[in-house]
Amino acid sequence: MFRVVRITLLLLLLIFVSGTTWLAQARSTDWNNSLWVKIYPINGDGSAASRRYIENLDVALFAEIESFLAREVSRYGVSLERPVRIELGEIIDQQPPDVPLANSRLSIMAWSLKMRWWAHRAASPQDSPAPDVRIFVRYFEAREGARLENSVGLQKGMVGLVNAYTGRRQIGSNNVVIAHEFLHTLGATDKYDPASGLPRYPDGFAEPELLPLFPQRFAELMGGRIAVADQQAIVPSSLEYVLIGPDTAAEIRLVR
């Protein structure tokens, strides 16, 4: 009898969590109200330089993301003055679980569960109430030849993990990555070739009908880069050179 009661309670809890998750995801793309996005800085490499940098972060450094989304939402005919409201959280002193190297469905699912649980434990002490979307940004010193791990955005749990460089020169490109992962939390998919990193034609191009096709003037946000030649693309220096394409707009329900 006790076993039946326990299983019933677990099933009810699962139904409640699933329903709450579905409602949160649906509300995130109805574009009726502002979404509250909170950014939590993390010292990714443990260096004193990165620590000094994140201690001096200001929410104004992320204002470009708000203005970019307001511009793009308006371009698709949605009347919402401030679709996203960004807040800067306190420094998180613990590291998130490592993203799995193996690209297997099982390992990714396991990491997703760990990440969502870690995000809840790490951020909850400073969140009351919880924001709509949590973006954890790990900062690393910008050193010659250094490469960052891929950033990740999860629709389930609406959590993002961004790897970023310190330094004022990197602010614009960091904001591009943060905006990209934020759209993942709303259900947008990548539109680039994972092997080459090149934007995929046509949905990964900002202006796929441009003649001549190259060079493109903008990057499609989920395509990630500006295609300047057939096998060449560059990372945009800021969101000034980025658009949300129609396929991405449909995924996040700007177009219905």
Structure report:
This protein is α/β, with parallel strands linked by helices. Helix content is 34%, strand content 17%. It has 2 domains: 27-187, 3-Layer(aba) Sandwich (Collagenase (Catalytic Domain)); 191-244, no CATH class. The chain has helices at 2-28, 48-55, 63-75, 105-123, 171-185, 246-251; strands spanning 35-43, 84-88, 133-140, 152-154, 159-165, 219-220, 226-229, 232-234, 242-243. The longest helix has 27 residues, at 2-28.
The helicity comes to 25-40%
Q: Find the structural class using helix and strand composition.
A: alpha/beta
Gross CATH architecture of the largest domain: 3-Layer(aba) Sandwich
Mean pLDDT over the full residue set: 90
Report the strand count.
9
- Give the strand line-up of the largest sheet: 2-1-3-5-4
Termini Cα gap? 49 Å
Global morphology: globular
Q: Regions with pLDDT < 50 over 5+ consecutive residues?
A: 16-20
What attributes characterize this protein structure?
256 residues, 17% strand, alpha/beta, Collagenase (Catalytic Domain)
Task: Briefly summarize what is shown.
This protein is 34% helix and 17% strand.
Secondary structure topology:
Layout: H1 2-28, E1 35-43, H2 48-55, H3 63-75, E2 84-88, H4 105-123, E3 133-140, E4 152-154, E5 159-165, H5 171-185, E6 219-220, E7 226-229, E8 232-234, E9 242-243, H6 246-251
Parallel strand pairs: 1-2, 1-3, 3-5, 6-9
Antiparallel strand pairs: 4-5, 7-8
